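User: Quick sanity check before I run a bigger batch. Here is a single chain. Can you write out its predicted 3D structure?
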Amino acid sequence: MWLADNWKDYEVIDCSNGEKLERWGDYLLIRPDPQVIWDTHRNHKGWKKKNGHYHRSKKGGGEWEFFGLPNQWSITYGALTFQLKPFSFKHTGLFPEQAVNWDWCAEKIKNAHRPLTVLNLFAYTGGATISAAKAGAKVTHVDASKGMVAWAKENALSSGLKDAPIRWIVDDCVKFVEREIRRGNKYDAIIMDPPSYGRGPKGEIWKIEDSIHPFIKLCANLLADNPVFFLINSYTTGLQPAVLAYMLELELKKFHGFVTADEIGLPVSSNGFILPCGATGRFELKQK
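Assistant: Done. Predicted structure follows.
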């Protein structure tokens, strides 16, 4: 398992009975997590000193209960600064486990020793975008949500990347890729974190089980002759690491690289557990 274990401003403190206790900077949050199916004694004092608690509803969705939590605050990861806000579906605007992928991509960008163009699809609030830009890449950030792209711009500004070469695009990712192919544009690297289900700005339906393999095949047409990497992340339960690896191997074999895939996770500080947080497949060019 690939661990996001370099955080200083974030930690999973404890987890029990469908919930996890997290520290986000100076604040403690309790949020539901479907992986936490075990029930243990909640001995850590943080369970009683929470600043925010997201209560899942049996009818679907849920709501926050706050105890002195600000409307917005920030945390850092190395040279990156992220703006956080609790919003409707339990999220804060950041997936901390993705730091293990940010670090991997940043290393590939720095070790390329040449300018790289990176395409980040389903880019959300821009964790991978600003990490890649901070590493020196020229990044195209694409997400169907205008609000998420605006949030990503806030994160770039907070991270000292106001003038970085980032192209911000609000668009359906499939349609954008199709247009880029027609334009003849190429990228040295592609990052994607597709949702299980979603709709584009004009009602386009995305269902990952039906759409992801054709989309990877489509994106392969955007890769330069010697692409540095292609990374796909998924939180969809049915897409195991091996499935991601097979799709990358099938569609990128002409580039003569190699593929690895594994779960990603976060360490739990109170008990030494590892909380699984989805799967990632990685293609990288073989070093000469």
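Helices lie at 99-112, 127-134, 146-158, 173-183, 208-219, 241-252.

User: Great, the batch can go ahead then.
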